[in-house]
Design goal:
The structure is a homodimer. By secondary structure, chain A is an alpha/beta fold. Chain A is built from 34 helices and 32 strands. An eight-stranded mixed β-sheet of chain A has the order 13-23-22-15-16-17-18-14. In chain A, strands 25-26-27-28-29-30-31-32 form an eight-stranded parallel β-barrel, surrounded by six helices. Chain A has a six-stranded antiparallel β-sheet with strand order 2-1-3-6-4-5, with helices on both faces. In chain A, helix 20 packs parallel to helix 22, helix 23 packs antiparallel against helix 24 and helix 32 packs parallel to helix 33. The radius of gyration of chain A is 33 Å and the shape is elongated. Chain A starts with a strand and ends with a helix. At the A-B interface, helix 23, helix 25, helix 27, helix 28 and helix 30 of A face helix 23, helix 25, helix 27, helix 28 and helix 30 of B.
């Protein structure tokens, strides 16, 4: 028969620390501490499976579970020689939630259960501490009334404050036992009014109701949201811990406190925490009384202090991790109430992992697993100084981490102008490629639309710049140059701050601090990661500055250089536009030749500029491979917007204006109309451009190889990898490859030197993944473009998806935003299939990923499983990817051991 | 050693009729006729493999092939006791192309090869027919000069006409031998001027040059285009037939003609053809002299006539098909020059197949394979009367077959107004859903943009209405209401005609004729098809009229009813728009409830209308399943266009107008902006709508089930199948299914009756196909939406793809437009995978296809292979699908026999 209840106490427990699945984190910790002989108040844990059965049973406690915990209660009563509801020797218990994964403060807790009027009186009489007795009763009724009976806290507080006011008191402690009795009476009549029933006096009924209430709290809104944010499954359920109460508020020799074995903010190895004498746990947290630093305890109760230090040191060694513990001293005697692995900041995580490894507490491999890759973000970007208060105006998506403080501007041009003298934050409804010059000078970007992989998000992450995207509360009025959040209006030039790590939009100038990513511990951890990972890590970088940053962060090459960003520069755009104006259809061969000539003339102007770009990249990455993608975006992105032209023309016509400007605009509109597409994402872009206009690919190939040859002559080793985008059929790649190879041999002949290079393709369409075997006959490498692959696999545009993704994630249709975390079931299936079939047709095929997922730890794990050679991500995510890759390798080699064992 | 040359003559041939791969169609026919003892001038065939080697060898004749055909030539000379170039007994030959598949007139032919000045003189002397001799020489030089030496025909004709003019002649036959000699001299000096060399006098040199020229003509533009249109592979190459000349122009007892064993236009069993005495083949075709009906031959040469009838009857029996033959009578003696299966019209193909089966010449199964499914089109739509001349203005894509004659209109509203009294043709740059009312009244649609599956093409095919789409030469100026094709300007109200079967746009009123699709032969063929097919055939129909048509054409159910078309009706659109105006985001729960209430109020108005729609469909399809898709398109399609609103507002503002209209427009624009998407195809549509706004699905489900229950009460059997579109994850389907099931049981309870129904899903995203096993746990049926599946698999929008597809097909990147012919490699792979994994998880899963491919014979074959249960297509394509399904089954059962044999 399955067991649902596990007791602990008297030096031994039925469960142990490994049983987090069954007992939850808290229950497992209590069992483990009990078994270790630590002073833990005894009790029992109702397993998480009980919670699941409770819900399955239509939110009713199954009879067999109820009878099982009754037995445990009997045992507890016997152990302590106390009895629930017996005024002579009353047993009081706490009832607490405790899920497998820590969800601090999200679910409910009830203390002092077992008290009632009679027992309170008996306590008062026996302890000579009537204030404590009635206050315990008062607290219990309030907590039970709120948690179990669903009566708002405020209504209790109103009664409490009313009594204080009536008596003219300021502090709670001024209240006399009689006052507390009055309050209790008020509470009870409130309960009667709200529930139509008397407050339950039978402690066994109280217990049953409390246990069910704690189960139910698994589905309260706070908890559900927390799980969604932390990707914790709804199916787990919570355990319930019923534990004998100990009291820190029994007078001057009692107290309670919390602490960490190391500083969770900095990672320093110091005994860290705080306590209050004559208090219960909530008093430490509530801020009514100021707690005292834990070192003070030594002066008050040296024995308890030493015992606490000894116990927590043992616990840290035992769990091989920083412990976050709670303790109570009841009349001089120390009790441990909880221990768990402590949450910590990124810098602390790194420091603790490395130091513990150096202390021999962990192996370097174990240390690697102790840092969440995402936590490294905090070491890589300027961050908000959390010690200072801030006023949060709104929350958007944490699109690109780090803090930014600047003056608001609403256009890219304004950003450039104002940005010369002041830090600016560019605020847009959404950004578009021709905002790039503004984004480059801004210190941060705020958008009201778009998701985690919107243009703004992707570009800023690439730049390592703070961004809050898709902030729906922010109404951006670009025309009037104002930002409205609720009733607050922010004008151009006003200061705001962004926290890209949390998505917060903050009023005024927030304080920030610079992290030190090159600290010794960080470097040590990265060294261990590099020694243990199998996946290579490259960076997506378009310009030498980013490439240098990437290299500094440990990138082993460039996995994606997007050449289109180079086309937007001010001195280049006119040539690009001239080329596009000549992208016209005609059946007349002569006319077609004329247009081609015109296009070639414009491209010739761009050639030296592109050559310079590539030279810079090769120089920055000297000796490392540089993957350059040929032109990808739809051409209309380089022209003014269609609807804006239409408006401009209509307005001129309405004003009966004529002349050169109007006809020029009309000619321009004609071209824009010709290029207009209903779904540009599915239109004339990627290699389709190079097939319609081979001279574009030709110019880019020429620039690449001329730059590479020039490098070689100067002793710089260029390793170009030419990447053809949006291939769906091997023939597309073959045609483009032919051009690249022809140009390469022309250039080598002219320059008199040769360089090694590869020609490969993006796999970013289902069609490509499904015919990867064929494509690999031409491709020397694959690079998964999982942004586009996710878009086409799901039929979901990442520019339009924000609203839908929010709803889908909150309704649990998807476990996560598929643009943030690679979908393993469908996109991942294509990735594995294409890698396998590609390698079957070309054994040495190099396979990487350059979509945004390349920097996401969960996605990196899928890549590692699929057997990819490398991932490529934003420069600032390179360390994260290095750590994630190492963790994946360590975990998988551990699995191998288990599998073969 | 491989054999490249096969001779035929003297009663036997090295090849035979089965060797079309090697000898081409013509060569195989000549061999077969020779073996059958028919009077065929002897000769030899150079195999298609020779052609391929010629190209592989860099357009040079491999030595071993040249020496092999020299041997065949020696043999031919011996057989006829003639010699190439010997004036005493000269051998004259024809050199003709002949590929595996007939490509009439696409490649080159050279007659009279072997003649030169000396031989012409000798001929003149010996035959006493100097006119014939010199005319033969003249014709040869002209043909050789044009085909082999690439000199334009016109330059020869200028010399010829010059001589006629000089002499004041009108007819060619007035030219005397001396005139012809002058012309020959002129021709030779033209050749010298153009090529820098004398015209080659050595017949062996002529022969070598002619053979190579015929090889090369495989790649001339005409031939390449023909192959692309007819899906003939470029890799096949052509054979070359070198055959002794016979002369129909040797005087009054000579003649030449062509004929068919049955009438290729009507299929009537009658000896059909025409001939000319004293003429060569080209004279029959050129139209200079009017040929005579073949029955007249009986009077002129009864023996030859009877022999010809006897031979061709034998040939028809032998080949079990209508023969298209060529013959020549030289001085009274009959020679057969060619026989091949005759091309025929659709009606003829049906009649011939059925009659041959009734005659016992074919089995019904063989008869089924004799009709190209596409040919049935000609029996189903009014067609152009090809006997009347037409003036073609331009050519577009043959988007929806049939002829249409009407007056041009440029807007849907104008179509409705003018369409009340006159037939109208709606001319648009492209059509959009809100043109639907205009499309309904128009007799035909012409668009300048969009491909074979553009909105216009899909909708018109559904309506069985003629459409020419993507006619790039047509410049549509909707503002000025004019259509410009080249210099021709067509204004509103002008007559034009469309031939949707060929894509021709014709000036003025062309003559059309009504076909008779219910003729006995058609019905017989369809009966045989139905008896032999495994695939079910349903139709895509949205309204009772189409459903009735579909049923008349043999549809076994409705595979797709698109409910969105129902939303565009004039009296409904305001309610739809009211609903959409309330599709607003808000974080405020109260406001959200208010919006939902507003949406529900608008939907309540639509409910009775939808219920009536569905009642009509169920009634029309009484007893047959009706698959109804819930709302699919993005909501903004129901609102005015964003850019038009922007322009309107800007113009009003420019004119400093204020007031209610402007603010109303601004409010509207705000909603439109809120719904604006960069890629609506990948945006908020399909089941995403039903998940964001469940009340839409709810209303539609209610309308369906209320209508079905009402039907049942009236004795009509409704079989609804509710189809959820754009599902990518099983959870989406589960959520929508829950709504449908809930509403169904509510309605059944209220109405007091129950109807059987299914809930299933479209498989139209790669994500769905890749998780089909999971989805089938919820879905009771799958229907492949291969339009969208092709779009997402290839990352290619069908609304924007015209230009790209043209280039890709012409550059042979794709064998065909993937929106017209299902791509078997990628989309087909997903289709097979999803069908397999779906059935693994639900054995009885019903699987169909409702994309445009459901009506395409090649695609139907892929569906049959994948094991689908049914295809669904436009009502007017139902017979085509029935035949294609039968052909696929017949072919596959034949394959099974071969495989097991």
């Amino acid at each position: 028969m399955e067991k649902y209840v596990y007791f602990f106490g008297g030096g031994k427990a039925e469960g142990d620390g490994a049983m987090k699945d069954v007992l939850g984190g808290k229950g497992a910790g209590l069992a483990e501490m009990t078994n270790a002989g630590l002073p833990v108040p005894p009790g029992f844990t109702i397993a998480t499976s009980g919670c699941r059965l409770y819900f399955e049973n239509g939110n009713r406690m199954p009879e067999f579970i109820a009878s099982e915990y009754q037995q445990a209660l009997d045992w507890l009563e016997k152990l302590l020689a106390q009895e629930l509801g017996d005024p002579a020797r009353p047993l009081l218990v706490s009832v607490r939630s405790g899920a497998k994964f820590s969800m601090p403060g999200m679910m409910d807790t009830i203390l002092n259960l077992g008290i009632n009027d009679k027992i309170a009186e008996a306590f008062a009489a026996r302890t000579g501490n009537p204030r404590w007795a009635y206050d315990s009763d008062r607290r219990f009724i309030q907590m039970f009334g709120n948690v179990v009976l669903d009566i708002p806290k405020e209504e209790f507080e109103r009664i409490f404050d009313g009594q204080k006011k009536k008596r003219g008191f300021k502090l709670d402690t001024e209240l006399a036992p009689e006052d507390l009795k009055q309050i209790i009476a008020g509470y009870k009549s409130l309960v009667r009014k709200k529930t139509g029933k008397d407050f339950p006096q039978d402690p066994r009924v109280q217990l049953a109701m409390a246990i069910e209430a704690v189960f139910r709290s698994w589905y309260n809104e706070r908890a559900a949201t927390y799980r969604r944010m932390n990707k914790i499954s709804d199916d787990l359920g919570t355990a319930v811990n019923v534990q004998a109460m100990v009291f820190g508020n029994m007078g001057a020799t009692s107290g309670t406190g919390v602490g960490f074995t190391r500083n969770p903010a900095t990672g320093e190895k110091e005994f860290y925490g705080e306590f209050l004498m004559n208090a219960q746990g909530e008093d430490v947290v509530s801020g009514v009384r100021t707690p005292v630093h834990i070192s003070e305890l030594e002066k008050i109760n040296r024995a308890a202090y030493n015992q606490l230090r000894e116990i927590t040191t043992r616990l840290e060694k035992h769990y091989k991790d920083v412990q976050d513990f709670e303790f109570t001293i009841q009349e001089g005697k120390l009790y441990m109430l909880q221990t768990r692995n402590g949450k910590r900041t990124g810098p602390a995580a790194v420091k603790i992992a490395v130091e513990m490894a150096k202390e021999g507490l962990l192996t370097p491999l174990e240390a690697l697993l102790r840092v969440e890759p995402e936590q490294l973000n905090q070491l890589l970007h300027p961050v908000l100084d959390e010690s200072k208060p801030v006023k949060v105006l709104a929350k958007g998506l944490p699109a690109s981490p780090g803090a930014a403080v600047g003056r608001v501007v609403f256009t890219a041009d304004d950003a450039v102008t104002r940005g010369k003298t002041q830090p600016v934050i560019l605020v847009r409804a959404e950004t578009v490629p021709d905002d790039i010059h503004g984004m480059e000078v801004a210190v941060g970007i705020l958008t009201s639309r778009g998701g985690m992989t919107s243009h703004a998000a992707v570009v800023t992450r690439g730049m390592g710049k703070s961004c809050v995207a898709g902030c729906a509360e922010a109404e951006v009025d670009e025309k009037r140059k104002q930002l409205r959040i609720g009733s607050k209006v922010i004008k151009e030039g006003d200061w705001i701050s962004l926290d890209g790590s949390t998505g917060r939009v903050i009023e005024g100038k927030a304080s920030t601090r610079e992290p030190d990513p090159t600290s010794g511990d960080f470097a040590t951890l990265m060294k261990w990661a590099d020694e243990n990972r199998e996946l290579g890590v490259r960076a997506n970088a378009d310009i030498p500055r980013d490439a240098l940053a990437a290299r500094r962060y440990g990138a082993e090459g460039i996995g994606l250089c997007r050449t289109e960003h180079m086309f937007f520069a001010k001195e280049r755009l006119p040539h690009v536009q001239r080329m596009i104006m000549a992208c016209k259809d005609t059946a007349d061969a002569k006319e077609a030749a004329k247009y081609e000539k015109e296009r070639r003339a414009a491209l010739l102007k761009l050639l030296p500029m592109q050559r310079k770009d590539f030279f810079g990249l090769f120089e920055a990455m000297d000796g490392l491979p540089v993957t350059i993608r040929t032109l990808d975006p739809p051409l209309h992105e380089f022209l003014p917007k269609r609807e804006e032209l239409m408006v401009e023309i209509a307005v001129l016509e309405a004003k009966r204006q004529k002349g050169a400007k109007l006809s020029k605009l009309k000619r321009l509109l004609e071209v824009v109309e010709g290029l207009h597409e209903f779904n540009p994402m599915l239109g004339l872009r990627g290699c389709r451009l190079g097939i319609m206009y081979p001279e574009i690919t030709e110019m880019q190939a020429r620039a690449i190889f001329e730059a590479a040859c020039d490098c070689k002559k100067k002793g710089i080793e260029a390793k170009p990898e030419v990447m053809i985008p949006l291939v769906g059929d091997v023939k597309e790649l073959a045609l483009q490859k032919e051009i690249v190879n022809r140009v390469a041999s022309e250039v080598f002949k002219k320059k008199g030197v040769e360089v090694d290079y590869l020609v490969g393709t993006m796999i970013e369409l289902p069609a490509a993944a499904l015919s990867a075997g064929e494509i690999a006959r031409e491709a020397e490498f694959f690079s998964f473009g999982t942004n586009d692959l996710t878009q086409t696999t799901f039929g979901l545009s990442r520019d339009d998806c924000g609203k839908i993704i929010n709803v889908y994630v909150s309704q649990k249709i998807w476990p996560a935003d598929p643009f943030a975390v690679l979908d393993p079931k469908r996109v991942g299936r294509l990735l594995k299939l294409a890698t396998k079939e590609g390698r079957e047709s070309r054994a040495k095929l190099k396979v990487g990923i350059c979509g945004e997922h390349g920097g996401d730890p969960a996605s990196i794990e899928v890549c590692a499983e699929a057997g990819l050679d490398y991932v490529s991500c934003s420069p600032y995510r390179v360390p994260i990817a290095r750590l994630a890759a190492a963790q994946s390798a360590v975990k998988r080699s551990a699995e191998k051991v288990y599998t073969t064992a």
